[in-house]
Design goal:
alpha/beta; 6-stranded parallel sheet
Length: 754
């Protein structure tokens, strides 16, 4: 409902300031959607501006739908208002006028699959390696986002590797699109800009139409989007930009934080600061303000709230990443026991997607429903499934599905027609694909295919032989002897993320091998299958696991920001020790902290198994910046030995020669979770019915030799007990899942008596 009285004074002033250029820097949780919708409603209801003359641009369909829904509740009709994403608005503009710049109005929009197919064909014509496809696609997109044409690409990037070849491919790519009367997603923006620049008829039509322009999330605009906005506002000058430079976290995909500062210079705008936060408590905002004030590229503002102080922010240092995950489980359990929260109120936010694994596994072990937001569960990620498919095949050579999955990982030049020949021959002879590959010379296949299969078959035999040894040694042979992961992936962000996932898989193998001496590869795969099949662990009432990037725009009553160690958060590679990179990482931390409404927990691990070795970690500089830990070393030193991210084995120990950190604000004894941890909560007297977790037997029933039943892992036998702080841990050998260490207070265990 349209009610200006629900706005605070700053919001009211911004809503009523309708003529000319206005920039609103809106802090996290400060009600910018309410501001935008009230301003549009004010223009229509109070100033009688025709809806036809209003443009509202957002960055996601979700945000556009939210704005549309709110306005429908404020106005009798919203017909005529353009409420679109940048791309959707540009499509409408192009459908009307694109024939003026040489395209037909019925142009096709190419998605990712179509654009990739065109570039693959170009690479084949140019006799370029398949590895160039992804790089060329990325370079073309980056160039378009900066309005760099194929003709100018080589001169702009003349010192970059392969710039001449990429420029040629870019030119051929654009020619192919033109021949097919097609535009890719970047072209929707770029061709709109060219249309508005070069066609006076189109430019004047839309400048007359859009008397009042509103742009949400202005900090996420790229160069092309900003130039479009400038042209559209060129006649009336009534442009209202809302953004938060403190939440600019997408520069890697073209967002340019400089646009906010350029807007002030180009439009000589009036500036409003929305500093009242309606989401979080004062204690949470105090941490957020301390973190973000370290950035230079920002408009000074300080969030405040009338929500009260709330609970104190907790900083917790765990002995290892495993105990960090245990701490999160324990805390969630206790919060739910108190009765104020549900699982769906809790979120675990991570800087790296690969770090979800220990939390996914712990949540399953302790019966906590969970979901991975905006991504795949760890064991469902392609590169993880590819590596595990090799292991499956080594343990069971009859697994044809596994063989066909990895036959071209890495590429072996065995095409679909060759695979079909294999399938047909395998069915005809009644033998497995493994037998076909390992006896290629006995097949009627062409000699070229025989040669490829013969080499592949030797690899498979070597794998099967290695599978009879220790699990860790098998995976070392697989990763380095067969896959050569050091050189398997390129150095772009996507491939680095894939390598991080494989590194985390190594951690999984190492943990299993440590607890299950003498276990086989098949035993490990059986354990993995338990973690993979977690459909019944999901649902509406589930803990959210998400990267900070994925969580932007979301909020939760309870937030855990985990993995807060230098080199992880902030993320840092050798080529990224720059002030711009650190500022973006700090903005990312600010976004993470401001997702929390009532409770905020910040955790780090003092030692973490990474890249095949245990690394002793230093708490994130962001924790010291907000006064939660005291650090006694030069922060620059933390990156002199940072990993290059090129391969599992080529990583330097990132914590060598660094002094330790001294925790100064956390739970009593919290830094020694594995020994003297003491919770700030009351000890649960019994299992809470609402939580659906926790032991269903008396603690005294847990004795060495006792048989137990886990609702998911099945039957097991206690082979050891250990008191850690106020928790009793049982080392249990499960028939299906191997040996695991579980806190009996929280794990869904029942002692089998009699």
């Amino acid at each position: 409902m349209y009610n200006p009285e629900e706005l605070n004074d700053t919001q009211k002033h911004a809503v009523l300031d309708t003529e000319g250029a206005v920039l609103v820097t809106a802090g996290a949780g400060s009600g910018k959607t309410r501001l935008l919708t009230h301003r549009i409603a004010h223009l229509i209801k109070d100033l009688n501006v025709p809806p036809y003359n209003i443009l509202a641009i957002t960055f996601t369909n979700k945000a556009a739908n939210e704005m549309r829904t709110r306005l429908e509740g404020m106005l009798e009709s919203i017909d005529g208002i353009w409420i679109f994403t940048f791309h959707a608005a540009c499509v409408r503009i192009l459908r009307r006028f694109i024939d003026r710049i040489g395209f037909d109005k019925n142009f096709t929009i190419y998605g990712e699959a179509e654009t990739k197919a065109v570039v693959k064909r170009i690479c084949k014509e140019r006799e370029l390696n398949d590895d160039m496809v992804k790089r060329i696609l990325s370079e073309i997109s980056n160039a378009k986002n900066r309005d760099i044409s194929p003709e100018n690409y080589e001169s702009v990037y003349k010192f970059a590797q392969d710039s001449e070849e990429i420029a040629k491919a870019y030119s051929m790519y654009q020619a192919a699109l033109k021949a097919n009367n097609a535009l890719d997603y970047d072209d929707l923006l770029l061709q709109t800009l060219h249309l508005l620049k070069n066609c006076a008829e189109a430019r004047e039509f839309y400048q007359d139409k859009f008397r009042y322009i509103h742009i949400d999330e202005f900090q996420d605009t790229n160069v092309v989007q900003y130039d479009i906005a400038k042209i559209l506002a060129g006649k009336h000058g009534n442009i209202f930009a809302v953004g938060d430079e403190d939440q600019c976290i997408y520069t890697w995909r073209g967002a340019d934080i400089k646009n906010i500062f350029a807007f002030q210079n180009d439009f000589k705008c009036r500036l409003y600061k929305l500093e009242q936060n309606y989401r979080s408590t004062s204690n949470i905002l105090e941490v957020a303000n301390k973190i973000i004030k370290g950035n230079i590229q920002r408009l000074d503002k300080k969030l405040y709230t009338e929500n009260g102080n709330g609970d104190k922010v907790v900083c917790f240092g765990a002995a290892t990443e495993g105990f960090e995950a245990d701490y999160v489980v324990k805390t969630i359990y206790e919060l739910i026991y108190e009765g104020e929260y549900n699982y769906s109120d809790c979120a675990v936010l991570l800087r790296l997607n690969a770090l979800t694994r220990p939390f996914e596994e712990r949540f399953l072990q302790y019966g906590i429903p969970h979901k991975v937001y905006g991504g795949f569960k760890f064991y469902d990620r392609k590169e993880v499934k590819d590596v595990l498919a090799y292991a499956r095949l080594a343990a069971n050579p009859a697994d044809d599905e596994a063989l066909y999955r990895i036959i071209n990982f890495p590429r072996r030049g065995i095409g679909e027609s060759s695979i079909e020949k294999m399938r047909a021959y395998s069915a005809e002879k009644g033998i497995s694909a493994f037998e076909v590959a390992t006896h290629a010379q006995d097949t009627p296949f062409p000699s070229a295919l025989k040669t490829k299969l013969d080499e592949f078959g030797k690899t498979l035999i070597g794998l099967c032989n290695a599978a009879s040894g220790e699990v860790t040694e098998f995976f070392k042979y697989l990763l380095f002897g067969v896959l050569n992961v050091v050189n398997l992936f390129s150095d772009n962000d996507d491939d680095r993320a894939r390598l991080e996932n494989i590194n985390e898989l190594v951690n999984s193998v190492r943990e299993f091998d440590k607890n299950n001496a003498g276990a086989s590869v098949a035993d490990y795969l059986q354990t993995v299958s338990l973690y993979s099949d977690t459909d019944d662990m999901n649902g509406d009432n589930a803990v959210t696991l998400a990267t900070v990037h994925g969580a932007k725009g979301l909020e939760f009553p309870v937030v855990f920001v985990v993995g807060l160690e230098d080199g992880i958060f902030p993320s840092m590679r050798m080529n990224e020790n720059s002030s711009n990179h650190i500022e973006e990482e700090r903005r990312l931390m600010y976004v993470a902290v401001t997702r929390a409404r009532k409770r905020l927990f910040l955790t780090y691990s003092k030692a973490r198994f990474l890249y095949g070795e245990t690394q002793y970690k230093i708490p994130s500089r962001f924790l010291s910046e907000c006064g939660l830990v005291e650090r006694q070393y030069n922060p620059v030193d933390a990156y002199t030995s940072s990993p290059s991210y090129r391969g599992v084995s080529g990583f330097a120990r990132s914590s060598d020669n660094l002094q330790s950190a001294k925790p100064i604000k956390q739970f009593d004894g919290g830094e020694k979770f594995a020994g003297t941890y003491k919770s700030g909560f009351s000890k649960p007297a019994a299992k809470p019915a609402a939580a659906s977790v926790g032991a269903t037997s008396d603690k005294s029933d847990f004795t060495v030799g006792a048989a137990v039943m886990h609702k998911r892992l099945g039957k097991g036998k206690i082979i050891g007990l250990e008191n850690m702080g106020d928790s009793l841990y049982a080392k249990i050998d499960f028939e299906r899942g191997g040996v695991m260490l579980l806190a009996v207070d929280f794990a869904p265990l029942t002692v089998i008596k009699g």
